[in-house]
Known about the structure:
Layout: E1 8-17, E2 26-36, E3 41-45, H1 52-59, E4 67-72, E5 75-76, H2 82-92, E6 93-96, H3 108-119, H4 124-134, H5 150-162, E7 168-172, H6 180-197, E8 200-204, H7 208-211, E9 216-221, E10 224-225
Parallel strand pairs: 3-8, 3-9, 6-7, 7-8
Antiparallel strand pairs: 1-2, 1-4, 4-5, 9-10
Helix pairs in contact: 3-4, 3-5, 5-6
Amino acid sequence: MTQTPPLLELTDIYKHYESPGAAAPTEVLKGLSLRVDAAQALAVVGPSGSGKSTLLNIIGTLDRPTAGRVMLNGQDLRQKDEKALAAIRSRQIGFVFQSHHLLPQCTVLENVLVPTLVAGQVGSAERAERLLERVGLERRASYRPGQLSGGERQRVAVVRALINAPKLLLADEPTGSLDEAASNNLADLLVELNRDESAALIVVTHSMDLARRMDRMLELHDGVLI
C-alpha cells in the first residue's frame, strides 16, 4: 500500500546563530527531523530556551534553517525565494501567538480580514462571519480589541489565523497569557477547529494540559525532538 505523503516533513534540520565575540556559533537545533500528517494535532514541549519558537519559525517560513530540508505540502521550501515564501505563509499557514497582535484601531471583523488583503481570498467576509459565530463572537464583530476580554481576543486571533483556510495552523504559547478558565476554553476550541477545519495543528506550549489534548506530544531536548 502506498503511504500518503505527509503535509509537513523536516529532515536533519540544523540552526546555528552567530554570536559576536563568541568562539563558535550557538547551536539551537541539531539534526532535528519531524513528520506531520494532514489534520494531525501535535504538541511540542520543552524548557524555555530549548528552541521551540525557533522550530516554529522555521516551519512557518519566518526563518530559514542553517542546514536541512523543509517540505510543506509537497514543496521544498529551500527552493523558494522570499516572495514565494510570503505567498505560502499567507495562503497555507495560520499563526497564533501568545500575544494576539490585533490592530487596536480596527474592529474584530476587520482584524479577522487582514490576512485576506494579501491572499486576495474571495468570499472572505462570509467565512469570517461564520467563523466568528463558530467561536461565539458573532455579536462582537463591530467591537474593538480593547472592548474584549483576553480570552475573546485570543479567539479572534484564532479566527484570523483560519480565515484563509490554511493547511497548517501554528500556535506559539497560545494560552500563556490567559487564566485557567480562558486557557481551557481556548484549548477546547483549538482541538475542535483542528478537527472541523481539517488543518494540521502544531502547538508549542509549557501547558501540559494543552499538550495532552493533542494527537502527539514531543519534547525538544538538546536540539532534537524526543
